[in-house]
Amino acid sequence: MPLSNEQIIELFYRNPIEGVDYADGFNRFSNMSSIYLRILKAFVASTPEILEALTEVTPETIPDYSIRIHGLKGSCYGISAVALGDEAKALEMAAKSSDWETIQRDNPLVVEHAYVLIDKLRQLIKVVEQGGENKPDTSSAQTRPTLDKPDRALLEKLLEATLSFDIETMKTVVEELDKSQYRSEPRLVEELRQLVTFFKYEQIELKLRSLLT
């Protein structure tokens, strides 16, 4: 039986995400959980591409960076992720004043925080869509085994699928890789998932070849 709007809202509050103000979010969308959920899904789907562009900032590209970080700020405030929105706002101000030192120092942290938020939102969306049958995987770091590095056979399989543009196998292998975490590449799965989502075959190939050498 489908959950009511009130039950879905209760699920949100039972699964808080630090830095996200659910009350503000629901107020923003007239307490309609279906709308808020749709906006969160859009954020999860579209933000990785923005983050990829943000990582490529140089002193010469600060004007373009200013536009992109402004977009991230707006997206964060749009889903009531106030903490990350404030971090992006500070970087936008730095970009406007051409403060390269601040951008160089803080941008990697903001990008990392954004990836963490995306992962937590994915978990929340899954819980809400399953009607609360599963709790968010907030303890995944404890339940997944920690390996020194990814399984070579899986990386080779992913490379083969990439070279043949076999997107379904690529997704399957990424999910297999996600069953462990890696000391040498703590963000590997998130990075690969992002690249697969946007069909960045050349970048995936380069990443895999660097891991396999």
3D structure, described in words:
It contains 11 helices and 2 strands. The protein has 213 residues and is an all-alpha fold. It folds into 2 domains: 5-129, Four Helix Bundle (Hemerythrin (Met), subunit A) (Up-down Bundle); 142-212, no CATH class. The chain has a two-stranded parallel sheet with strand order 1-2. The longest helix is centred in the middle third of the chain and has 30 residues, at 100-129. The chain is globular. The N and C termini lie far apart (52 Å). Helix 5 packs antiparallel against helix 6 (100-129) and helix 8 packs antiparallel against helix 11 (201-212).
Sum this structure up briefly.
The chain has 2 domains: 125 residues, Four Helix Bundle (Hemerythrin (Met), subunit A) (Up-down Bundle); 71 residues, no CATH class.
Beta-strand share of residues: under 5%
Mind summarizing the main beta sheet?
2 strands, parallel
Mean pLDDT: 89
Number of strand segments: 2
What is the rounded Rg?
A: 19 Å
CATH class of the largest domain: Mainly Alpha
- The chain-level structural class is mainly alpha
Unreliable sequence segments: 134-142
Name the overall outline. globular
**Termini, distance in Å?**
52 Å
Quickly give the CATH architecture of the largest domain. Answer: Up-down Bundle
Say what the CATH topology of the largest domain is.
Four Helix Bundle (Hemerythrin (Met), subunit A)
